[in-house]
Design goal:
73% of the residues lie in helices and 0% in strands. With 263 residues, it is an all-alpha fold.
């Protein structure tokens, strides 16, 4: 009946006004239906976030979970939402923020069944921030500290092998950084600085016995550069006696046979 009324010639002006106002009516109706995340309840925020997660849109889910944990800190499932927020940031590669969130989870819920998992993910978050060995190694140092703390706790066992592997990798990266600095000094004939760096490496990585043949080789290189024949021969003899099959012994022989100390 309404449509027939509007189509009557004498009511054409009414139809025109209706057509003109229709976009505004639809816009108003849409605004009335769509709430902002600040207006959503906890369950609604959760549903919105999970809908984005199912579509693999983690970045779109993050604002809803952030809103949830901020406005509903006493929610019965708040620990799960805090963990979900950390996981979303981790998947997005926001490792600094993920690390902070995992550590906060461990602080607030030390007895939670996921606390050890959170410790492991915090270590990974730190490890993934580490830079190449010729760059600053602050994150690597932090990773080593976290790994040692985890391994020192006998109650933590589930991720022990992975944490040990991360520790080994991080220590190797720190070693490479120190050796990079040594070679930098050596290449510029700053022999005192190079010798001091080698001493530092020996002290810092004293527990790593596997590093010894490499350090002897570096000492041989330094002595050769300084034209200290006797000192170089001492290093060579130690390599031949204690590490006859080491690649570093072979490398030292190769340098010795060249009769030159240009590397």
């Amino acid at each position: 009946m309404m449509l027939r009324y509007l189509l009557m010639p004498q009511n054409a002006w009414v139809l025109g006004m209706f057509v003109f106002a229709l976009p505004f009516i639809l816009l108003f109706a849409g605004c009335a239906k769509d709430k902002t995340k600040e207006q959503l309840k906890a369950d609604e925020l959760s549903q919105k976030a999970l809908a984005h997660v199912k579509k693999h849109k983690q970045s779109s889910a993050i604002p809803y979970i952030e809103e949830l944990v901020t406005r509903f800190p006493d929610h019965q499932n708040i620990s799960k939402y805090r963990m979900l927020l950390a996981e979303l940031h981790f998947k997005e590669g926001n490792y600094a923020l993920a690390k902070e969130l995992y550590e906060n989870f461990c602080q607030f819920y030390p007895g939670d069944k996921q606390a050890e998992y959170a410790k492991h993910k915090a270590i990974l978050s730190s490890f993934y921030q580490a830079l190449p060995s010729d760059c600053d190694q602050t994150y690597t140092e932090e990773t080593v500290k976290q790994c040692n703390e985890y391994l020192a706790n006998p109650a933590l066992t589930k991720y022990r092998k992975d944490v040990q592997d991360i520790l080994t990798s991080s220590q190797e990266r720190l070693t490479e950084k120190e050796i990079y600095v040594f070679n930098f000094y050596l290449g510029r004939k700053q022999f005192d600085a190079a010798r001091s760096r080698l001493k530092h490496i020996r002290e810092k990585f004293a527990a790593n016995k596997a590093l010894e043949p490499r350090l002897l080789y570096l000492e041989y290189k330094l002595a050769a550069k300084e034209k200290k024949r006797n000192e170089a021969l001492v290093c060579m003899n130690k390599l031949e006696k204690d590490y006859p099959s080491s690649a570093f012994t072979t490398m030292a022989h190769s340098l010795h046979n060249k009769q030159t100390f240009v590397f």
